[in-house]
Amino acid sequence: MADWRALPSATSPRLYVGPGDSVARALQLYAPYSRVARTVTSVLRSLPDFVARRLLPRATDAAVLASVESIAARTPLLLDTPRAAVSIAPGTPGPDRKATAQASVDGRVIAYAKFATTGAARDLVRREHAVLQSLAASPPPCAVPRVLAFDDTAAETVLVQQAAPPGTRTLPAVADADMLRLAAAIAATEARRCLAARFAARRVPTGFGHGDFAPWNLRRLPDGTLYAFDWEYGGPEQPVTDDLMHALFMPAVLVQRRDPRQAVGTVLDALATDVPATL
User: Fold this and answer.
1) Quick check: 176 pLDDT over 70?
2) DSSP character for 42?
3) Shortest CA distance to 203 belongs to which of 240, 157, 229?
4) Considering the entire predicted model, what is its pTM?
């Protein structure tokens, strides 16, 4: 039986560390913002791999093992890289659930593959593929993943994306100035584009947006450029300030645990300032 390890527990896993992967490298697929979880992952990264692996419970459920083994076997084939080590995030339970595999070669993460089998999850993966193809043709004011492979069969939809380059850093749990400038830049650009007659009756200016613009879906590249991923809720008809509001509201509620009414006040205060004018 392959040695798959679960984090934080075998009963409530957020990450499965593959038998050929290191714990520290697998943790690149897991970016928590709670203080306890960040402390745990920091300690695990600091330990020798054989020690860190032993601290994690072994995955023993037969159905779980069959699923992760299947994904781990297919991911290198999709990349045409048989030596790839694979770790897997099983996704959040619910109708949109999808597994994400992280593939590494020679100690470096090279790609991520999303596997979806339910109708809602497959639609999201198809949507993300379409958005990334559109962004490749008309780049946004940030870096985005490149599509490496897309497979849409009767049973499953799979999207493989190139990983960010080495040296990429996570962002603070609360939106920083660069993140807000990027969200405002997207809004300002699209606001000018979407004043077409077909939107006039709606009285809601719309344009291209990310749809889940928050620190956990952003990284900073070594040259300082922001790198945005997980575009499955993106599309061409988002309200033009949706990403800006999402960047302010979601971290305030989910990370800072602020009262939603206070968080709304933060958003309204920000929209009343000259954030877009600072670009």
Assistant:
1) no
2) H
3) 240
4) 0.84
